[in-house]
User: Which sequence fits this backbone?
């Protein structure tokens, strides 16, 4: 579309001082030109020259300045505001508010066009909020799925070692579980790892919290699974093996690193791929908080536990018993498993018990 020729008034700052000159401006397809407008005697009731008068006038040529449009640095056009035009020689030409020349020169940016109309602004806000909500619910997970294969396994190892060292310094103490039971569970777990999780680096460790036995188990990104004495004492060997299958599922599916990628985004992924992970993320992310997983990750690991139960020929209700004992422990310690599920990183314990019971009923009996 061919640009229209416009004529109008403007104010020109040469750039060497703060004084301004009124100028007559003409905008063509390829250039902008202006020259000082001769002073006119004006009474209090007189008006500036009209567009028609400017277009028809023939001012003298001395003082004429001409610049190619491609050499101009034009500020965005805003309704009700003058438009600045930066000149190659350091001067600035200001076009009046709502000037057709200002609209043509600076009004082509999409943001400017949209922001000039409140309806478009509202639409943009709605779209932005929708995108943020979608990214929070699905986009971050899709991003993590795409980016996770780019993160080398050595990053999981390095992160897990840092977390394990921090746990050892601040929280964990040597286990008091009888040595014979530790060895029996270790043998069963090693056999389980070889049969059900080939190629996955797994290591079992027993410990207790510094002031109590603790009722928990956790999988670190490097494959170390820590079982606290309180859980080992409360669960049977079969129940503990099922729980270990759940924790091994976290390692197999790299849930720690997936959570890390979702939380930290592309910056951390880029740092990991480029080998500068420690600088980018280790200072803030190599902590116990890395052990948090999403509810979907927990459900995926629960499914791994059910697979272990069938493969190891454990009673079908094994995981049901483990979750019931976990619920009893939660109630005894004053934890309340209620409220909206989206407020928690774990599925409600009642849901986990029901899911495990349904899986047990649908599975073939253990032989």
Assistant:
């Amino acid at each position: 579309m061919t640009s229209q020729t416009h004529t109008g008034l403007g104010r020109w700052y040469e750039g060497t001082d703060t004084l301004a000159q009124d100028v007559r401006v003409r905008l063509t397809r390829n250039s902008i030109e202006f020259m000082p407008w001769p002073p006119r005697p004006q009474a209090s009731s007189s008006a500036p020259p009209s567009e028609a008068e400017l277009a028809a006038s023939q001012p003298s040529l001395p003082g004429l300045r001409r610049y190619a449009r491609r050499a101009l640095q034009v500020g965005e056009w805003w309704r009700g505001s003058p438009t600045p035009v930066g000149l190659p020689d350091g001067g600035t030409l200001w076009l009046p508010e709502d000037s057709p020349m200002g609209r043509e020169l600076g009004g082509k940016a999409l943001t400017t066009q949209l922001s000039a109309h409140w309806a478009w602004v509202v639409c943009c806000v709605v779209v932005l909020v929708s995108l943020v909500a979608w990214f929070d619910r699905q986009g971050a997970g899709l991003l993590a799925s795409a980016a996770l294969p780019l993160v080398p396994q050595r990053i999981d190892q390095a992160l897990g070692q840092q977390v394990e060292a921090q746990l050892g310094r601040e929280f964990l103490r040597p286990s008091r579980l009888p040595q014979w039971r530790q060895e029996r569970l270790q043998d069963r777990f090693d056999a389980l790892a070889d049969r059900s999780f080939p190629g996955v680096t797994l290591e079992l460790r027993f410990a207790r919290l510094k002031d109590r036995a603790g009722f928990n188990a956790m999988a670190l990104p490097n494959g170390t699974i820590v079982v606290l004495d309180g859980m080992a004492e409360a669960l049977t060997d079969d129940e503990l093996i099922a729980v270990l299958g759940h924790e091994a599922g976290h390692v197999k599916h790299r849930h720690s690193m997936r959570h890390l990628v979702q939380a930290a985004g592309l910056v951390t992924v880029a740092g990991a791929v480029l080998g500068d992970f420690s600088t980018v993320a280790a200072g803030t992310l190599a902590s116990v908080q890395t052990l948090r997983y999403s509810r979907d990750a927990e459900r995926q690991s629960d499914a791994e536990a059910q697979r272990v139960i069938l493969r190891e020929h454990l009673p079908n209700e094994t995981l049901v018993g483990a979750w019931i004992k976990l619920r009893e422990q939660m109630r005894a310690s004053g934890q309340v498993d209620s409220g909206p599920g989206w407020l928690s990183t774990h599925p409600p314990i009642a849901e986990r018990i029901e899911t495990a019971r349904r899986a047990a009923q649908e599975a073939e009996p253990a032989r």
Notes: Residues 118-147 form the longest helix (30 residues). The longest strand covers residues 6-13. The chain has two domains: 6-109, 151-362. Residues 41-46, 266-291, 338-344 have pLDDT under 50 and may be disordered.
